Amino acid sequence: MRIFWRLVLAHLLTDFTLQTNYIARWKRQNVWGGMAHALIFLFSAGALCYNYLTDIWVILGNNIIIYGWMAILILTIFHFLEDEWRVWTIQKWNSPDSFIFFAWDQVIHFVLIFIFAPQTEGLFPEKWVLLGTLFILTTHFSTILIYYIEKQFFGQAEMPVDKKYISMIERLAISFSLLLPGKWALSFIFVFVFSEVVHRQWKKNNFSWVNTVIGSVLAIIAGILARIIYY
Predict the structure, then answer these.
(1) Please, which residues bridge with residue 67 across strands?
(2) CA 6 to centroid of chain Cα atoms
(3) What mean pLDDT, rounded, does the chain reach?
(4) Torsion 54-59-63-66 (CA) sign
């Protein structure tokens, strides 16, 4: 599943790391924003899977062959259509962009990637893909996930920039502490305790318990899984 994990990394880059606030607003304003966003996936996936673009990825029936470049193009089109459906649904029914929409959107993207990626080779990702995925999951992905959870259950609709990046750095430190050799991996406990002390002293940031608990749990899980795979 080497290609599958590379496509997952391309998707995470597209939907989180490289999707700035400007692009997110642009997507909601007109179709050109959605197309620009989809093109980011096209180039990201193409770059990460460059050596496999001419390989056969999927065979449908007895005579329909889908090569790598074709699969990425199809995924790009579906990525665009899924995002446009989400925007249209929210605007059509005047619905809030909620956690449910976010979760549904991500599930659809990952299912499509699984369908069009060749199910060959090992189950686990390459180490560099793993580290890239870990970085995004513990930084940008977790930030957006926590945002939607807080918005869904507590009505919070914004996240200050300083709070966002402080939380990202803390989660990243926890995850990568767990990749240290031997007992040094337990240093994640020190990182967690230290961050809590900082939160209590730096009261103006007002970190919620949702941010602390869910963020820390996600960082620890990501770090443990990465450690199991990495070692």
Answers:
(1) 56
(2) 12
(3) 85
(4) negative
Structural contact between residues 134 and 219, judged by C-beta atoms closer than 8 angstroms? no
Whole-angstrom distance, CA of residue 113 vs CA of residue 133 = 15
Parallel/antiparallel/unpaired status of strands 56-60 and 64-67: antiparallel
Beta carbons within 8 Å of 119's beta carbon, 6+ residues apart: 1, 4
Please provide residue 129's backbone torsions phi and psi, each rounded to the nearest 5 degrees.
Answer: -70, -40
pLDDT digits (tens, 9 = 90+) for 100-116: 888 889 999 999 999 99
- pLDDT given at position 159: 59
pLDDT at residue number 181:
83
For 138-206, the DSSP string reads IIIIHHHHHHHHHHHHH------HHHHHHHHHHHHHHHHHTTSSGGGGGHHHHHHHHHHHHHHH-GGG-
125: which DSSP letter?
A: P
The distance from CA 208 to its chain's CA centroid, rounded to whole angstroms, is 22
